[in-house]
Amino acid sequence: MPDVPTAPGAPDDPVETDAATNGQLAPGASDESTADASGESVPRRLLAVATRLFAEKGFDRTSVQEIVDAADVTKGAMYHYFDSKDDLLAEVYARVLRMQMTRLEEIAATGGTVTERVRRAASDVVVTTIANLDDATIFFRSLHQLTAAKQREVRTKRRHYHELFRSLIIEGQEQGVFADHVPADLVVDFYFGSVHHLSTWYRPDGKLAPTEVGDHYARLLLDALRPSS
Q1: What does the alpha-carbon distance between residue 38 and residue 73 come to, in Å, rounded to a whole number?
Q2: Where would I find the HTH tetR-type domain in this sequence (predicted)?
């Protein structure tokens, strides 16, 4: 789909379009149908550019004009897919969370012991967070700059992930394979606090590969959940 034309010197405020979709593709349009001459879809290009600029300059110091210039699209094209700069930032994180949620749902639905499913889930969220560390870092650094409504929306989506992870902990506690003296809510909050802290110390050129970090984190969690003899 070609860029939607816009008038020269249009302001940074969102413009009215018939396809304002809060970061989603227009109804009836596939991701492929929005590809430009290079074969890359306009939404993906905008997200890639926004991620880079937010990392380099910060969310608050990056303007919509800079984003569309770097992505080589018009403002109208951007507002065709994203209502605002806030939507771009939220989508940077939301696309990672959607991927992680899909993977967690698959892990939770598989056979095997609850211990094995928790081990896989605990390791997976570490590995996928490291694989998308720039996105997660940018988002958590800038979350407070989103509107209150957008913050609530993102936190609701993240809570759904935490609730599914917590259900695995509760399952293990009810089976007696996990200690139940610590509430499952606290276990989840503690574990994901350490996951969100990854961006402060993990380095791709360090000694530990992502899978090794994931294995260590999962082992620490399971050791903490082991019932006392």
Answers
A1: 13
A2: 40-100
Pair of tokens at residue 177: 């394979």
Separation between Cα atoms, residue 74 and residue 71, nearest integer Å: 9
Residue 34 pLDDT? 53
Give residue 110's pLDDT: 93
224 phi, psi to nearest 5 deg: -70, -25
Q: Whole-prediction pTM value?
A: 0.77
Task: Judge whether 79 and 43 are in contact, CB under 8 Å.
Answer: no
The tens digit of pLDDT for each residue in 73-105 reads: 999 999 999 999 999 999 988 899 999 999 999
**What are the C-alpha distances in Å from 220 to residues 52, 55, 57, 199, 214?**
34, 31, 36, 19, 10
Percentage of the chain beyond pLDDT 90 is 66
Q: Is the pLDDT reported for residue 7 higher than 50?
A: no
Q: What is the DSSP secondary structure assignment for residue 8, as one 8-state letter?
A: T
CA angle 17, 88, 51 (to 5 degrees): 140
Residue 20 — φ and ψ, nearest 5°?
-70, 115
Pairwise CA distance, residues 205 & 84, whole Å: 35
